[in-house]
Amino acid sequence: MRVDRILAPNPGPYTGPGTNTYLISSDGCAVVLDPGPVIDSHVAAIERAAEAFELLSVLVTHTHPDHAPAANLLGSRFEVPVLGFAPGPEFEPTSTLADGDIVEVGDVMMTAVHTPGHTDDHLCYRIADVVFTGDHIMGGSTVIIEDAAAYMRSLEKVRDLQPAHLYPGHGPEFDNASAAITEYINHRLERERQILDAIRKGAATVADIVRVVYVDIDDALIPAAAFQVRTQLEKLEDDGRLTWLRGAADEEEIVRLVEETRS
Ligand SMILES: [Zn+2]
Prior knowledge:
Layout: E1 2-7, E2 20-26, E3 29-33, H1 40-50, E4 54-59, H2 70-78, E5 82-84, E6 95-96, E7 102-105, E8 108-114, E9 123-127, E10 130-134, H3 148-160, E11 165-168, H4 177-200, H5 206-213, H6 222-238, E12 242-245, E13 254-257
Parallel strand pairs: 3-4, 4-5, 5-6, 10-11
Antiparallel strand pairs: 1-2, 2-3, 7-8, 8-9, 9-10, 12-13
The structure holds zinc ion.
């Protein structure tokens, strides 16, 4: 198997250096993973790279606008199937993939691994000890999580596959996969501890918690941080760790810890 990375020219706070489009090939055949946004120069670069192979399909990890919109365009130009977990705003799969489904790449088989958390529709793809992680695990940019409990379970799911190499949707590849995944899991647990600690010390609203937990954050990322705190509070509420009275305005909102008993 050979992996070629084609970097999309869409750098930013949520995309790091840009989206990693992968051309994964074996035995003269290839698939394109996460073709990214429709940017002419990027689409042309993918086409040039793919022309050396028999292209079999175009895949996406999820339907975010930095990953999926060029998929249908490439699918029709090469007349190949377009595959992903579910349709999205700018993505219409010719057929959908579920957890455990197999996608052929020449003489190797790639397995779809459903990894909800970043989004409900997120798939990683595994070939032997290599996992393409999309935005589930990414190098050097902010991972936004929609469901903290599902995200944690999906991190454990990928860890349990015991991969050696990770190819993320943004940033450089990871050669020490288990260390990277452990770091991600520990980071989530640490955030949870920081949020509980902030509430214990008097933070009672999402805005309070953001101020305490995300101290040196760029202003542009504050809405994303608030979204992450809300996601984490939902999980902690489900876990029975706190009560969260939601208000339309910050000052109407009250987050309280459920009485902690110590043994
Ligand atoms: Zn994403």
